[in-house]
Design brief:
- The complex is a heterodimer of chains A (about 220) and B (about 325).
- Chain A is α+β, with helices and mostly antiparallel strands and about 220 residues long.
- Chain A contains 3 helices and 11 strands; from the N terminus they run H-H-E-E-E-E-E-E-E-E-E-E-E-H.
- Chain A has helices at about 1-10, 35-65, 210-215, and strands spanning about 75-80, 90-95, 105-110, 125, 140, 145, 155, 160-165, 170-180, 180-190, 195.
- In chain A, the strands form 2 sheets. In chain A, strands 1, 2, 3, 4, 9, 10 and 11 form a 7-stranded antiparallel beta sheet that branches.
- In chain A, a hairpin with a 2-residue loop joins strand 9 and strand 10.
- Chain B has 2 domains: about 1-50, no CATH class; about 85-265 and about 290-305, Cytochrome Bc1 Complex, Chain C, CATH 1.20.810.
- Chain B has helices at about 5-10, 45-65, 70-75, 90-110, 120-130, 135-160, 170-190, 195-210, 215-225, 230-265, 295-305; strands at about 80, 290-295.
- The chains are: A alpha+beta (about 220), B mainly alpha (about 325).
- The interface between A and B is medium-sized, with 31 and 28 residues.
Chain lengths: ~220, ~325
Amino acid sequence: MAEDADKINQPYRAPDQVRTEPPPPGYFEGESMTRRKVFTIASQALGGLAGAAIILPAVGFAVAPIFHRGKERWEKIGKVSDFTEDTYRQVVFTETPGIGDIGKQLAYVRQSSKELGEEPGQIVAVSNRCAHLGCPVRFVQAAGNFICPCHGGVYDFQGKRIGGPPVRPLDRFQTRITKGEVEVGPRYSVTSQLKPVRARDPGEFTGGVWEYLYPPRPSTFPPP
Amino acid sequence: MPKLSDLLVPAPLRKTPKPGEAGVPTTPAPQDLKSAPPERPTDLGRTGEKALEAPMEATAWIDQRLAASGFLTGMLFRKVPKGTNWFYTLGSATLFAFIVQAVTGVFLAMFYTPSATQAYSSIAHINNDVFLGQFVHGMHKWGASVMVILIFLHMGRTFFFGAYKYPRELNWVIGVVLLILTMTMAFTGYLLPFDQRSYWASIVGININGTGPIVGPYLSDFLRAGPELGATTLSRFYAIHMLLVPGAIIALIGAHLYLVVKLGTTAPPWTKTGKPRVAEPTSDLDAGVSGNGYHPNGAGATVAGVRVDGHNGGGATA
């Protein structure tokens, strides 16, 4: 049986001379494929098609969030006069509504400081997410530094890294002033020179060649 | 006193008595004579005997249709090498830990709600209100650590005994995949209680994934189902923890065990190679195999942690 099947599966070669034997079963003269082979390939192709019809939508469904950017959201956090130049105020605001506490973010907010050479009349909102692995940092008034409890990352008053394992300064949130009210918007990251770039996850370097090694994600908003 | 089976089973369904049984003469009745209905036996002892036979008959009925007994005896009474010892039970112990996780996990899922706003309170409900809830949750929580520890011990045994070498390399590879899947289970399961520890551990874990160059950022977004850890992250981790990875683990454990039985286990490295004591090796794979069947010596040790030893020439004593 098996030998017969092998014979059938081999392409038929017409002999140069006048054929003395009849063609093997399943072949017609001049054919390059047997029916068996055609049906084998066709049924495998159909099976593959059916498999792809199941797998591809499922994978697409699971992977889609990578390419989806949510709606830009601005949240009022108080009046300009609520914030000062020389220290931070903690502000908790909702980033994603309807999912409880995990939809909230914490920002340290102040007015821009002339002493530090920042553009005047701006509001600076520094994220409390450590640039090392995402633990919550705390602003320590006495030291004037941000300190991370997890692995000892330390940042200066502007959020630039001055010690520990973080790879870049603290992230910031976009801010704007509408009729005297301060609003915070999407998150963005900064380079070591505080130049805004698209939001990166903690642990990812910014600036220079790192912009290519840690490419910006489609799910984040463009920097201001 | 009639037989119990005669009382329960209506006459048309009863087994036709064989010649020589109670009430049936050994010599066949004449053709023209209708056979009399079987006489109801009065012997009380026979009832007990029959009751004892019933499970065997049921097993035989099933085996006639499955033909599984050959496979089972082949697996349970397979030859194991001389010198097989306690270290060889680590694999079964890992399997047992997995079974504990699977069973307790199914029952935890009956009370757990994978929702960002309700997950924490549903776990609190399991721990505080549900009967034995804290116990079952504890089994699942501590069992997870036990499984990870056992899987590493099992891996160490395989490595130090050289059991990963030809022809068992593929089983080593399957084992490594199982290790990765187990770590995936540990990682995704950690988020589910949704307390501060779970939350921050998952944040850190996802961000560690994200530090891989080029693909890292996208991997983080895939795990979180978006740029921030949120409600969909929890459902995603729950689905991976509940459905995706357990299925893969069960399938791979099947392949792992198949290869263990098919290829056999290795003797410990300190076992002297010599002439096998019972069977001549039929191939390279059988070299070093000696006379002990896996069951009951090995099976007893692996199932109950009790070693039935030495009555057939000494497993661990060799």
